[in-house]
Each structure stands twice: as structure tokens, then as C-alpha cells.
Write a structure and sequence with these properties.
The complex is a heterotrimer of chains A (156), B (129) and C (359). With 156 residues, chain A is of the alpha+beta class. Chain A is built from four helices and five strands. Chain A starts with 6 loop residues before the first helix and ends with a helix. Chain B has a single domain, classed as Beta Polymerase, domain 2 (2-Layer Sandwich). In chain B, 17% of the residues lie in helices and 29% in strands. Chain B is built from two helices and six strands, in the order βαββββαβ. In chain B, the strands form two sheets. Chain B has a four-stranded mixed sheet with strand order 1-4-3-2, with helices on one face. Chain B has a two-stranded parallel sheet with strand order 5-6. Chain B starts with 7 loop residues before the first strand and ends in a 27-residue tail after the last strand. Chain C has one domain: Orthogonal Bundle (Cytochrome-c3 Hydrogenase, chain B). Chain C contains twelve helices and eight strands. Classes of the chains: A alpha+beta (156), B alpha/beta (129), C alpha+beta (359). Chains in contact: A-C, B-C. At the B-C interface, strand 2 and strand 3 of B face strand 6, strand 7, strand 8 and helix 10 of C.
């Protein structure tokens, strides 16, 4: 039976410096890959909605017209699936955990006015083009119909 | 080391044969690894699987009882006389899937998980709210 | 015959880290009968398959348990990969093995600490958890989370372990090995520790088999079964033997788990040594259609996974049978005939994880 097997370790610990960090006084160290919270560079977002569909806890929502991206950070489990899925890689996982709060609040990110304006213009142009294309298609259809009718006439 | 993945078989049986099969497995020196139920949403079937494993060869035999929707109340004799620890699995199957397992040696009366809803994993029958 | 009395034990108890309730029937100081009951934290994670698709479920299964988190994520992915016939790249298999063993390392060190705490040796508890902290640091370095890894996906892994990280892992292993040797001396040779563990809660090989025990709990009774011998992930290419003890008491269970700490260290070194180059993940197409039963060795014992897919993104059934569920019957058996004062130690020796058990 060994006696005092722990004495060596106990003595060593008595004279060595503590292994813990004095956290609030000294800053905590985060590793490079730490999954703390999600950041978005909103102006790169194309509003595809992939992140909202793949989120396991349904914490994200997106509005393409208003150019907003909303997250409820208290529901987010920081799994990183949206970061993985984002086609434009505008989502990133950064260090720093969500601090506790009395209420569950959502955070909304809105695109900068210039980007929004440009996007609105683009949408307008697209709509115009689409309308023109539609018009052209309709005209073509009408012409074809008229042609068909004309072809039919002599027979009838 | 030599990896021995072992067999992994599914044996379909009738509800009445379960005790016989369990006795056979026990006489071979196998142990009950798990028992679980599954509700197939497309086929509307309740499946009970009892898995027996061999600790030396790592073989696994899954005994499967398949019950159609209208027959899911079929009485099934508990195997907890043969494998005493099967009681936990059978209580779980009865509580979550409503499998009609009779005479469990440690009957917890659908209070294993202390959930409010009755048989949450299977759709409600007509007339049940 | 003495007077019988019933003492409720748990779900909140100072030495019990998990919410399990035991009704102990006592005759004087000896326990004659036990009635366990669980169900305080049932979360219905298995039912979530109806609402989440099979890719999202990876993250749900990882959160079944905090300590064996990686094991659950891995078991789920491997089962789905079997159904969908996906060939996982070799590098991903080895990376998974490394992470799996890291999680076993930290789980066993955590258990050693809890065990020390259960028999009232708090200083030893601090020492175990201080060593464990180094493992957690490495886990955070390689995966980004301290206990929830989130590196698995169906088809492979998401992150790589770079050469610098491999160096950090090896350095950590040297440190943990050195420190574990010090801890082992206390656990195995100390007079007071031995007097709390030797001959307490003896479970013979026959009893352990008859009660369907699994994992280190069964191995401590002399049953040489270790699911890693089945050769899933990269275990087939590594050299290992199940660690067993024939004592069948608390001392034996401690011996097995400390042996497994060294085994894990050895396995990680082998895996890093043999780590092949290549892709991290295979391409996944379509939805799982079929079923598969999978067994893997979690830190706490053998875990069963059963998945049934029906060709849609939402699985029909995802079932996890956790090691504690198998060991509950064994726990009730070892408690019978034990002293009331030993209940805390005996409950900890099965390494209970009730949160896993109830999903």
C-alpha cells in the first residue's frame, strides 16, 4: 500500500503559477477557428435565402426587396452550417460569444443605401427587360396567330 | 488488428414468433443490444426491431415485426422474461409508439419519459383526439 | 431482518451529475432493492426528423449529448453514408478517428474527475479537469468548439487538421500522458482511494452478460467487446486491443478507463502518423432511401444507431440507443447489496449520461 502518492503533485502545484486566466482582468484568448457568432458582410449578400433554409434552428430570416438579413442571436447554436452553405461566402464565423440579456432580441442588418439603390435600378431594368421581352413575345404570338389564320383562310 | 465487421442481418418474423426467436438467440449466447420501433410515414406501417448481438464475432441479427396500420394494436408478448433488461426498451416502444406489448416485468405504465402527449411518434387513430 | 425504509435518491443530488431518480429500498444500511426512473429531461430530438432534413439533423444529433457529441454526429453520418452508399475519402476517415479519440480522451478524464469527486477526493478532481482542459484547448484549435465539434457532415468532414495543428496535438498528448501517469499512481495505488473502490459493486462476467452491459462497464467485468474492433472509420488500419479487467468492481472500472486514456493517446499518434492526403468530403446526391443498423464505441460504451429513410429529405426514423440505456440494468444490479454510502460512487462508475439516454 502506497502512502502519500499524491504528495509530489500537491507540492508542485503549491509553488507553480496558476493554470487559469484571471478572465475579466485579462482578456480571454480565442483560437482562429472558434465558433463564436456569425457576421455578415451584408453588401455582398445576394438574398438567395440559402442560409434561412439550411439553418437547423430557424433563427435567420431574409427580405430580398428591403435588403435586410435578420438573426436572433439567442436562438443561434453557432453550428456554422449557413457559413458552409452560403454561395457568396459573405457569412463568416468569428470569435466572441453572445452575451446574456434579459430579452431575446433580433438583430437586423440592412444593406447600405447605395447598394440598395443600385439593386433597385437593376431590378427596374430587369423588370423593363422582362416587360419588353413579354411584349415582344406577345407580338410574335399575335403575328403567328394572324399568319396561321391567313394560311387557314384560303383553305376555308 | 484484424477488423471483424460481423454480419448485419434483418430477419422478418410474425408477431407471435418473437418469444421463440428470443429464446433461440439467448441459447446461442447472444445479448439484446437494442429494441426500437419505427413508424413508416409512406407505407403507414409500424415496425418493431429487436437487435441481438454477439460479443465475440460482432454479428448482429435484427428481428423485425411489421404491423400494418389497422393491425398496430396486435398484442405482442414481452420478452422481458427472457431478457430482463428488455423492459426499458419495451416500455419506451409502448410509450412513444403505442405498441401493444403485454406483461412487461417492470411495467412503468407509460411513465418512462413523463411526457404529456400519448404516443407522439405515431399519428392519432380515428376517434382519438 | 431489519426494518425496511425507502429513500428517494436524485434527480438532484450533490454527487450525481445527472438527473436520474432512484428509489432505494434499504434494510438498515444495505440496499435490497432499487427502482430507477428517468424522464426528467426528455426533449424528443428523434421526432425532429419530421421537421428537419437529413443534413440539418447532423447538428441536432451532435447536441444529443455534450460529452459524446462527436460520437453521435459521427454515428449518424456513418449510418446515413451506409444507406446512401457513399465512399468517404480516406483522409476524412482518419480525421474522424483522431477527433473521436480526442473526445474519448476528454470524456475519460472528465469521468476520472467526477469519480474522484464522488469518493470525496476534491484535489484529485481538480487535477483531472486541469489535464482535460489541455485536451479541450486542442479541440477548440482544430474544430472551433470546445465540446460541440460540428465538423462532421454527411459524406466527410468540414475542416482539416493542418500540420501545425498536428504538432499541437502531439505536444498535448505528451503532456497528458505525463500527467496521467501521476494521476494513475493516485487512482491505482493510493490507500484511501483503494479502500473506497476495491470490492465495491462487484459484477461478474456472467452477470454482466446476462444484464446486457456495454462498454467500459462490461469490459471491467471481463467481457472483451469493443466496437472499435469492427473497424469502422480508420480503426481497421490501427493497432488496438480491447482493454479488460477481471475485477468487476469499481477499481476494475477505473483501471479500464485509465487504460483507455493511454490507448486513445496511442491511437491518435498512430492515426497522425498514417494520415493520408486527399479530399475531405465526398459529393452527396439524392436522399437516403433504406435502413441500416450501426454500432459504434462511444466513450461511455456501445451506442446503436438506426436510421430509416424513405427517399425524402426527412427521415422516417432516427434512433439512438445510448450506452447508459444499456447499463441501467447493470447499475440496478450492482446497487443491490451495496452500502448506502456507496450509491454515489456506483452511479458514477457506469459513467451515466441521462441526457443522452432520453434524447
Amino acid at each position: 500500500m502506497a502512502v502519500m502518492t499524491f504528495a509530489g503533485a500537491a507540492l508542485k502545484n503549491f509553488f507553480s503559477k496558476p493554470v487559469t486566466t484571471k478572465y475579466p482582468a485579462e482578456p480571454a484568448e480565442y483560437k482562429e477557428r472558434t465558433r463564436g457568432h456569425i457576421e455578415i458582410s451584408i453588401d455582398d449578400c445576394i438574398g438567395c435565402g440559402m442560409c434561412t433554409r439550411c439553418c437547423p434552428c430557424g433563427t435567420l430570416s431574409i427580405d430580398k426587396i428591403k435588403g435586410t438579413w435578420t438573426i436572433n442571436r439567442f436562438d443561434c447554436i453557432a453550428c456554422g452550417f449557413c457559413v458552409e452553405k452560403c454561395p457568396k461566402k459573405c457569412l463568416t464565423m468569428v470569435a466572441g460569444y453572445q452575451t446574456p440579456d434579459g430579452e431575446k432580441e433580433t438583430v437586423t442588418y440592412t444593406k447600405s443605401p447605395e447598394v440598395l439603390e443600385a439593386e433597385a435600378k437593376q431590378r427596374e431594368e430587369m423588370a423593363k427587360k422582362a416587360a419588353e421581352a413579354k411584349k415582344a413575345a406577345e407580338a410574335k404570338k399575335a403575328a403567328e396567330a394572324a399568319k396561321a389564320a391567313e394560311e387557314k383562310k384560303p383553305e376555308g | 488488428m484484424t477488423a471483424t465487421e460481423g454480419k448485419n442481418e434483418i430477419i422478418a418474423i410474425e408477431p407471435g414468433e418473437l418469444s421463440v426467436k428470443a429464446m433461440e438467440m439467448k441459447s446461442k449466447g447472444l445479448r439484446l443490444s437494442q429494441a426500437c420501433a419505427a413508424w413508416l410515414r409512406k407505407e403507414e406501417k409500424l415496425e418493431l426491431s429487436y437487435s441481438f448481438v454477439d460479443d465475440e464475432t460482432y454479428d448482429m441479427f435484427n428481428v423485425r415485426i411489421s404491423l400494418d396500420n389497422d393491425k398496430r394494436d396486435t398484442e405482442i408478448a414481452s420478452i422481458s422474461d427472457i431478457f430482463p433488461y428488455a423492459a426499458f426498451y419495451e416500455n419506451e416502444m409502448r410509450e412513444l409508439f403505442g405498441a401493444n406489448i403485454k406483461v412487461i416485468n417492470l411495467d412503468l405504465h407509460n411513465k418512462l419519459y413523463r411526457i404529456e402527449e400519448e404516443t407522439p411518434f405515431v399519428p392519432k387513430k380515428e376517434g382519438q383526439n | 431482518m431489519g426494518k425496511r425504509s425507502v429513500i428517494p435518491y436524485g434527480p438532484q443530488h450533490p454527487v450525481l451529475p445527472e438527473p436520474i431518480h432512484l428509489d432505494l429500498v434499504l434494510e438498515d444500511e444495505k440496499i435490497v432493492d432499487v427502482l430507477p426512473s428517468i424522464g426528467f429531461i426528455h426533449r424528443g430530438l428523434e421526432k425532429l426528423t419530421e421537421k428537419r432534413d437529413f443534413n440539418q439533423m447532423v447538428y441536432v444529433t451532435e447536441r444529443v449529448c455534450g460529452i459524446c457529441s462527436f460520437g453521435h454526429g459521427y454515428g449518424y453520418c456513418d449510418t446515413v453514408e451506409h444507406i446512401m452508399n457513399i465512399e468517404v475519402p480516406d483522409r476524412a476517415k482518419f480525421l474522424r478517428t483522431i477527433w473521436f479519440e480526442l473526445s474519448r480522451l476528454h470524456s475519460h478524464l472528465l469521468w476520472a474527475g467526477l469519480m474522484a469527486d464522488a469518493f470525496g477526493f476534491e484535489n484529485l478532481f481538480y487535477q483531472c479537469w486541469r489535464v482535460r482542459e489541455k485536451v479541450l484547448d486542442v479541440i477548440e484549435l482544430t474544430t472551433g468548439g470546445r465540446v460541440i465539434f460540428s465538423v462532421n457532415k454527411v459524406g466527410g468532414v468540414l475542416k482539416d487538421i493542418t500540420p501545425e495543428m498536428q504538432k499541437a496535438i502531439l505536444e498535448m498528448l505528451d503532456y497528458v500522458e505525463k500527467e496521467t501517469k501521476v494521476l494513475e499512481k493516485t487512482f491505482m495505488n493510493d490507500y484511501t482511494v483503494q479502500s473506497r473502490m476495491k470490492g465495491v459493486g462487484v459484477l461478474t462476467k456472467e452477470q454482466a452478460h446476462a444484464l446486457g452491459c456495454a462498454g467500459p462497464f462490461a469490459r471491467a467485468s471481463g467481457i472483451a467487446t469493443d466496437m472499435r474492433m469492427r473497424g469502422y472509420a480508420a480503426y481497421g488500419e490501427l493497432d488496438m486491443e480491447p482493454i479488460i479487467s477481471n475485477d468487476g468492481d469499481c477499481y476494475g472500472r477505473c483501471e479500464v478507463r485509465i487504460g483507455e486514456i493511454y490507448q486513445s493517446i496511442d491511437l491518435i499518434r498512430q492515426a497522425i502518423d498514417k494520415l493520408p492526403d486527399g479530399e475531405l468530403a465526398a459529393v452527396v446526391k439524392g436522399n437516403p432511401n433504406g435502413e441500416y443498423f450501426m454500432r459504434i464505441e462511444q466513450p461511455r460504451g456501445e451506442a446503436d444507431y438506426y436510421i430509416k429513410g424513405n427517399g425524402t429529405p426527412n427521415l422516417d426514423r432516427m434512433r439512438v440507443r445510448t450506452p447508459t440505456f444499456a447499463n441501467l440494468a447493470g447499475l440496478c444490479e450492482v446497487l443491490k447489496g451495496a452500502d448506502y454510502a456507496d450509491v454515489g460512487i456506483l452511479a458514477v462508475t457506469i459513467d451515466p449520461c441521462i441526457s443522452c439516454t432520453e434524447r
